């Protein structure tokens, strides 16, 4: 019986928890904490729900074993976005506030990921169908046309042009697909082996991605900084805490540079203007405010503006994706149509 329970525990430890359940878990936990329950009492109540029974038990064991909340959630494969955000409870001690922000961020991520899947699934299906049709034409129909129209030089020329065109498009698509996959695999392999300075230089060379990463990095920086300022910590203590964490490597690297300046008596305003993955408005906020309370307020407001702008841009990208997919599909259809009809027109001309 003990062996069976051990096997069951191992199974649930490695079983992937879907993201909807993870979000519901966070919301339920936040609700109990808001009502004044301790985290262990809240988890014990949540254990009564059959959906959370297998989730809560290893978390309670991990917390009783001295692990932090982010470490406990990591043991049962909670998403890295959640564990990375909750890591900062170790520094600011604000479980309720950090959990609330974490829910907001994860809900936003899920919403746009779901929207993205809805937008691309139909075009992708059509693209797959037309790709198969494209390959079938190249391998079967056009060679048959060559035999059929062998008596007509003009039609044969048209068929050969169609074959060359399809061959060219197929090779370009194949090279692009294989090249993209190879680049992604290489990046996943080497990214941890290269320094953060080199990675930042690479990020800054990717036009669209660097804009998104700048907004995301600025949002995380403003959010965590404002949260720590609420606790009454000094700027040096906050920056030291940010530099020690490993969940957000860009912010950790930037925080180390800030810590060096603070230790040497330099103001942060000038350094902030040199950090390319932080928005310049951050340095303006620091220039205007020396009072921690005012700085915390303005950083909170700015973080809210950033998340709204991120959402607006994400919606813009998503609304552009579908027309782009349909344009590609239309190009496939026109190419297939021309490949079939042009040789036939040439043949008709000779009759």
TrEMBL record:
Residues 25-140, 221-343 form the Type II secretion system protein GspF domain. GO terms for cellular component: plasma membrane. It is found in: Cell membrane. Keywords: Cell membrane, Membrane, Transmembrane, Transmembrane helix. InterPro entries: GspF/PilC, T2SS_GspF_dom, T2SS_GspF_sf, T4P_ComGB. Coiled coil: none annotated. The chain crosses the membrane at residues 119-137, 157-190, 324-345. Its main location: membrane. It is a multi-pass membrane protein. Pfam families: T2SSF (PF00482). Belongs to the GSP F family. PANTHER family: GENERAL SECRETION PATHWAY PROTEIN (PTHR30012), TYPE II SECRETION SYSTEM PROTEIN F-RELATED (PTHR30012:SF0). NCBIfam families: T4P_ComGB. This is Competence type IV pilus assembly protein ComGB. It comes from Ornithinibacillus sp. 4-3.
